[in-house]
From TrEMBL:
<feature type="transmembrane region" description="Helical">
    <location>
        <begin position="91"/>
        <end position="118"/>
    </location>
</feature>
<keyword id="KW-1133">Transmembrane helix</keyword>
<feature type="transmembrane region" description="Helical">
    <location>
        <begin position="64"/>
        <end position="84"/>
    </location>
</feature>
<keyword id="KW-0472">Membrane</keyword>
<feature type="transmembrane region" description="Helical">
    <location>
        <begin position="12"/>
        <end position="31"/>
    </location>
</feature>
<protein>
    <submittedName>
        <fullName>Uncharacterized protein</fullName>
    </submittedName>
</protein>
<keyword id="KW-0812">Transmembrane</keyword>
């Protein structure tokens, strides 16, 4: 089976975008969330550096399981027939949700998005059926 070049290019661009989103989240968590010094520095948001505000939003989303909820919402949407960018976003957001300790819903979102992504790519790579009747009992 050969896959059309536009499908391969689309998948490659989406894989790079997913990897970039995950890499940015890993880097941000490594620099601003995980070090204890930032936790102490960000105790008082009124006097904290600017980097503490996005950190507070990230942790608030993590606390209320909203990373996972968004991932699962995107995954369900992807599974029922969303456009291709939503499928890639579901995979990225699912992994990001897992990174932010919203693993249950995040894994569901990533799995549904990945399933929809692979299925759509396989469908695009499938050759078109010949016109006319096909199958058992068909006459040429």
């Amino acid at each position: 089976m050969t896959v059309a070049k536009p499908v391969l290019r689309r998948d490659l661009v989406a894989l790079l975008a997913v990897a970039a989103a995950i890499g940015l989240m890993v880097a941000y968590r490594h620099v601003y969330v995980e070090p204890r010094a930032w936790g102490a520095l960000c105790l008082d948001l009124a006097q904290a550096p600017l980097a503490c505000q996005p950190r507070a939003v990230l942790l608030w989303l993590q606390h209320w399981q909203l990373w996972g909820a968004v991932a699962m919402g995107l995954g369900i949407w992807a599974f029922v027939g969303a456009p291709f960018p939503v499928r890639a976003a579901a995979v990225a957001m699912g992994v990001i949700a897992v990174l932010n300790f919203n693993a249950t819903w995040g894994m569901v979102g990533a799995a549904l998005g990945g399933w929809a992504w692979v299925e759509a790519s396989a469908r695009a790579a499938r050759p078109a059926a010949p016109s006319g009747r096909t199958g058992r009992g068909a006459t040429p």
